[in-house]
Amino acid sequence: MMQVLHLLRIKHWIKNILIFFTAFFGGELLEISNLKTLAFVFIYFSFTASLVYVVNDLKDVEKDKLHPEKKNRPLASGAISKTHAYILIALITAALGIASFYVPLYVFYVTLIYFILNILYTLWLKHIAIIELFIISLGFVFRIIIGGFAVSVVPSKWIIMLTFFMALYVIIAKRRGELLHTTNNQTRKVLASYSEQYLSSAMILVLGVSIVTYIMYTIDEQIITRFNTDKIYITTIFVVLAMLRHLQQTFVHNNTESPVKYILKDKLILIIILMWLSSFYFLIYF
């Protein structure tokens, strides 16, 4: 059972918490009906994302055997056979097909686009430098949009841009870590198209854009009117602090290759994120 959960990458479901963010920042999260809808959509989307992971692992099983960490994945290690993986795909697909009748129509459409785009990524797009970074970053934007469609809340244009740029920053840091820690680029051929200097420079560029975007969001007149407060800018402190912490861990300690593993282990970054969310909660809901 644990191997199945590992194959589904349950730990990566933490990324899908973004589905709740549109309602949270829209001041609509505490509605019970919204929470129920978002919880169902969260599970629906999470299994869709897991389905993509299984397909990806099936395609890359031979390459994963050459990777120092990925060789321990269920398929690469032989803990789960390809036959069982295909059966799992069939079961999840059937369950998602039924669940699709119970999610808002536009949630289904965006989730379907996400699935198709990520299958194309698995089969082809992940080998195209820079484009592959954008595809992954768009996946996080889809999560924000799906959360909005789930509860009929339109996400701010600033939030959409901020999500994209911050996701892009994290993905670039991941590629930098992979480049430094991987001696055999056959496990991810696109790394041959990058250099440490290029990725480090790209990180700084995108980090600056992300912070400016967040500041623009906090002082936007529509946002101030929506929240009935002009104090949102105060939360910028936590965003800059979190980004600098991540930058330090990337450049000094080189331990952000796995974003999920990093965020679950770095207690300081978790405290900063909690403080950021708490400050936002206080400003929006009180």
Summarize this structure briefly.
This protein is an all-alpha fold and 286 residues long. The chain is built from 14 helices and no strands.
Walk me through this protein's architecture.
The chain is an all-alpha fold and 286 residues long. It has two domains: 1-154, UbiA prenyltransferase (Tetracycline Repressor, domain 2), CATH 1.10.357; 156-286. Helices cover 71% and strands 0% of the residues. The chain contains 14 helices and no strands. The protein has helices at 2-7, 21-25, 32-59, 61-64, 74-77, 82-99, 105-123, 131-151, 157-181, 196-218, 221-227, 236-251, 259-265, 267-285. The radius of gyration is 19 Å and the shape is globular. The N and C termini lie far apart (44 Å). 31% of the residues are buried. The chain crosses the membrane at residues 12-32, 38-58, 79-99, 105-124, 131-152, 158-177, 198-219, 231-247, 268-285. This is Decaprenyl-phosphate phosphoribosyltransferase. Its EC number is 2.4.2.45.
What labels would you give this structure?
286 residues, globular, mainly alpha, Tetracycline Repressor, domain 2, 2 domains
How many strand units? 0
The ordered string of helix (H) and strand (E) elements is: HHHHHHHHHHHHHH
Summarize the amount of helix as a percent range.
Answer: over 70%
Rg value: 19 Å
Structural class label? mainly alpha
Instruction: Determine the strand fraction and express it as a percent band.
Output: under 5%
**CATH-defined topology of the largest domain:** Tetracycline Repressor, domain 2
How far is it from the N-terminal to the C-terminal residue, by CA? 44 Å
**Tally of helical segments:** 14
Q: What global shape is seen?
A: globular
- CATH class of the largest domain, anyone? Mainly Alpha
| Low-pLDDT stretches | none
Instruction: Just name the CATH architecture of the largest domain.
Output: Orthogonal Bundle
Number of domains: 2
Subcellular location: Membrane
Enzyme class: transferase
Protein name: Decaprenyl-phosphate phosphoribosyltransferase
Transmembrane segments: 12-32, 38-58, 79-99, 105-124, 131-152, 158-177, 198-219, 231-247, 268-285
